[in-house]
Amino acid sequence: MKNMIIASTSTVYGSDYLAYLLPEISILFKDADTVLFIPYARPSGISYDEYTRIVKNAFAKISKKVVGIHQFDNPKEALENAKAIFTGGGNTFELVNQLYKNDILSVLKKVLENGTPYLGTSAGGNICGVSMMTTNDMPIVYPPSFETLGCLPFNLNAHFIDAAQNSTHMGETRETRIKEFHVFNSTPVMGLREGSWLKVKGNSITLKGNLTARWFVPNKTPIEIESESEFAG
């Protein structure tokens, strides 16, 4: 029975890292003393150890210990024994590349389907969809496949931004890029705005936060999904 929080971002404007989610995380990880952290998406310029320290400082506020998966000789075993798992943001291409390189994508999928509590923010949320093909990230590496966990029956576009009114910018908007994806792919896409998250419990998926989400289906006009709306997973 899946038990997950999938968030657009780890940090909202004017707040500390994970601060806005800590009450929800406390509930999600209530039965775990230690959280296994997957730092593979690491933001530019920091090491796995440095990234893990940032996460440790945040989780200390809710009295949780953190250990990085990179500290284990056997990452598969670490996932199988984990009581709680967190995958942070950064570059989704590199995250997926490392999950395949370490041969742990299928193991992660299995433990999540069996109910290990999971928190994914930004890139860590992107991998919960059918594929990573609607990420905003640059393809700095080439993973063996774009296929990801499939814990959601749709894809995510984290950090979704609406086109600014009266803007003179002539480049593609997020909505345009998602429509381009739908020229070749039929998977629905949810544009998840900053400060919003999905709560997954078994086959139930509920949109949380104060904002609506943008829902894209091929050959249909995009619609707004209200907070507290529930989907079938």
From TrEMBL:
Family membership: Belongs to the peptidase S51 family.
A GO biological-process term: proteolysis
Gene3D superfamilies: 3.40.50.880
Organism: Polaribacter gangjinensis
InterPro entries, per the entry: Class_I_gatase-like, Peptidase_S51
Keyword Nucleotide-binding tagged: no
Domain of life: Bacteria
Single GO molecular function: serine-type peptidase activity
UniProt name for this protein: Dipeptidase E
Residues forming coiled coils: none
Keywords for the protein's UniProt record, in alphabetical order: Hydrolase, Protease, Serine protease
Pfam families: Peptidase_S51 (PF03575)
CDD domains per UniProt: GAT1_Peptidase_E (cd03146)
